[in-house]
Amino acid sequence: MHIIPVNKDNAKMFQGLLFEPLSRGDGKRLRIGFVDEDQPLGTAVLDETEETVRLESVFIAPEKRRQGYGRAFIYDLLEACGKKGSIFLTVEFPYSREDLRQFFLACGFLLTGDSVIYSFQPVRTVKNKKAAGLLINDKKGRAKNFYVLSSDEKDAFKKYITGMGYSEDIINKASFNKELSSCVFDKKGEIQAFLLVTSYGDDMVVELAASTGESRTALLLTFRHLLECFIRMNDEGKLNENMRVIFQAARENVVDTALKLFEGYLESDDFLVSGVRETPALDLS
Fold first, then answer.
1. Residue from 107, 38, 105, 31 nearest 76 by CA
2. In terms of DSSP bridges, do strands 203-210 and 244-249 run parallel, antiparallel, or are they unpaired?
3. Nearest alpha carbon to residue 73 among 95, 43, 108
4. pLDDT in tens, 210-251
5. Please, what are the domains in the chain?
6. What pLDDT is attached to residue 213?
């Protein structure tokens, strides 16, 4: 079995084995296929950063499953990542998928923790205008839409996200939502947090990156900003009733804040388990 990149020249070979994962994609996205004697076995999507490769999705042809190809692919991928200089291969999967838990454990992954996937429908929350007034007199910071940032603020933003381990290319992705994404500035004009919102059809995936941790001020400011945007969209008749907002949270203060702002309309979908494994060290002898 060997791994090859999937491109426009060979995409037809993998027809029926390709799909787009729901992910923020922090780094360089690469779609790969794995074949055996020129027979396609499956595909995967990787997200590459400087030291880490994240396995976003993997799909094995149904007729090839439970024959050892999945584990062989992981081992080949680990070796390929090690040769390229990547140190870690990471994965995420739903807690309810016991088969994936056992599979990644068998492949030598260390399960590092879990968070909960929450979601809500903005059309059910926009009546909570009182919540949008929270922190109205708070002088600790302010949230500002990404699309109205000045050139200097955008430069500061790029430095901020790269310092947080993100790629500045995220703002150029088609899925990046400039209207809902926002930055939190303190009184000195320094960025304290960034609310990243990416769009996938009717779903909005929300992630909070805060240099000071998930502080109450950053949470309230970013969530309040999000709610104000939904209220404005609803007043303008632009709020899609099928829209769903999805976010992950491992800390209780995130959930408590969201529950207060969105009037308890949160729905808990599943736990998301994270796993990591070191790639084989490159033999330079």
1. 107
2. parallel
3. 43
4. 665 556 667 777 777 787 888 888 888 888 888 888 876 656
5. 2-112+274-278 (3.40.630.30), 122-264 (3.40.630)
6. 52
The token duo for 9 is 């020249």
